[in-house]
Amino acid sequence: MSNLILPNIPKFLLLLLLADTVVPNCSRPQKEVVSIYNGNFTTPVSRPQYFIEVYRCVKVEIGECRPGRNEYPVPNKKEEIEIVVPVLTNKLRDPNKENKFYKYVVYNHTSCQCGNLEDRKRTLNKIITNNKVTKNYFKANYSNNPVNLLNQCEVCKNPQPRYKLNTKHDSAIPTFKYLSYQQCLPGCVVEKNKIFKVKITLTSTDEHKIVELTNDTSCKAYDGGNDKTQQIPKGWKLIPLRRSS
């Protein structure tokens, strides 16, 4: 068999050409606690509160991805987690109301790669046009549901890991595309929280911004007293800094 003859291409140019044909792997997926219903910690009316642990691609280190639009951590491989739940109805108030059951699907990222913003816009919660299922389907699949964290003992002892896309993600360097924070589960009481100031480096070397993140640092179980439970998703405030001279 004859040897393969490569064209006389400079080595550095050949490496660049090869780099354009390969999608680099990013950092590993990070653990996060999410609602099965949406990207916030909210629960639709008449549905049971349901929170699970998943892994999501949120981290990119400098140099892992090619400069430009493809600097977002997106899933290379993912799996679907299916959850079936009943509609919560008041039988005493409406005894003739039909029992209804619904299916929800949450993505779990198992490996990551570099991608663009369009890839990043795909949420962890799969959009299902008609997610109503039969009673028989519910009975057959209920035992396969993942653990609902609210059913675990002492789940309110610690805040849960959360991630949110930076409001300045389009101009932030890769390591600041996502920001991490902690939040007590709804139904738990926030004992202490603290505002953290995160300095965001932008792609422009002479400009930075400060993001204020509210982190829950201590939680406890609701004991029926006057304590308010955690119900509102955390937000942040962006504070511009002066350009350095």
Descriptive key words:
245 residues, disordered C terminus, disordered N terminus, 9% helix, 36% strand, Cystine Knot Cytokines, subunit B, Cystine-knot_cytokine, 2 domains, mainly beta, single chain
Topology overview:
Layout (H helix, E strand, L loop, with lengths): L10 H10 L9 E6 L15 E6 L15 E15 L14 E15 L1 H4 L11 E2 L1 H7 L18 E6 L12 E6 L4 E14 L6 E14 L14 E5 L5
Antiparallel strand pairs: 1-2, 3-4, 4-5, 6-7, 8-9, 9-10
Q: How would you describe the shape? A: globular
Which strands sit side by side, in order, in the main sheet? 3-4-5
What is the straight-line distance between the termini? 64 Å
CATH class of the largest domain: Mainly Beta
DSSP helix fraction: under 10%
Give, in order, the helices and strands: HEEEEHEHEEEEE
Low-confidence runs: 1-6, 9-23, 238-245
Largest sheet: 3 strands, antiparallel
CATH architectural name of the largest domain: Ribbon
- The CATH superfamily of the largest domain turns out to be Cystine-knot cytokines
The overall number of domains is 2
How many strands in all? 10
Rg over alpha carbons = 23 Å
Mean pLDDT: 79
Computed structural class:
mainly beta
Number of helices: 3
User: According to CATH, what is the topology of the largest domain?
Assistant: Cystine Knot Cytokines, subunit B
Strand content: 35-45%
InterPro entries: Cystine-knot_cytokine (IPR029034)
